[in-house]
Amino acid sequence: MTETGIRKAVAADRAAIFSVEEAAFARKDEAELVEAIRRDGDAVLELVAERDRVLVGHVLFSRLCVETAGSRFAAVALAPVAVAPGLQGRGIGTALIRDGHRRLRAAGERLSVVLGDPAYYGRFGYTHRRAAGFDSLFQGDALQALAWDAAPETGRLVYPRAFGVG
Ligand SMILES: CC(C)(COP(=O)(O)OP(=O)(O)OC[C@H]1O[C@@H](n2cnc3c(N)ncnc32)[C@H](O)[C@@H]1OP(=O)(O)O)[C@@H](O)C(=O)NCCC(=O)NCCS
Fold first, then answer.
1. Is the pLDDT at 1 greater than 80, yes or no?
2. Is 88 a pocket residue for ligand 1 (Cβ < 6 Å)?
């Protein structure tokens, strides 16, 4: 059986990451977002999934700040995550996100925020309740957060510049 391996992305993965993101979303927006986040120096952690040396999945966590009166708390945003269309539904996205969380926690990160389907992200511990106090253009049921340690529950979410939302 072909095993899926998860590892940190390296510069040589760039084209394959672009292809996987583009194929998964059937458009270039997310692939271009990844490039812009990287170019701006806002990537915190990027992982890829490989099968038989072929890159089949990718996840990016970028630097998101929670701004409260006079201070900024460094959190991460999970986006985007993509798995090659022919290999979806086999646990690769789950493995990428879980491995990402493990590495982020080990690195001392305390809060992750995601915008997406609660039916999917809920399985990793993300809840809208944990994100409901944040001031964000994305505020709504799809905005979810996961805290591994003490972290702000209110404040303005400041996304990396590449998201174009301030
Ligand atoms: C979303 C995505 C990354 C998940 O990766 P995956 O390897 O297919 O997912 P897994 O095998 O780990 O998990 C499968 C489960 O997720 C669910 N799922 C997959 N995509 C989903 C989505 N967009 N919304 C809600 N649930 C989803 C499946 O129904 C399945 O549920 P089950 O375990 O209850 O049967 C992948 O399907 C993908 O690339 N989709 C297109 C791009 C996208 O929508 N990315 C997420 C937004 S940033």
1. no
2. yes
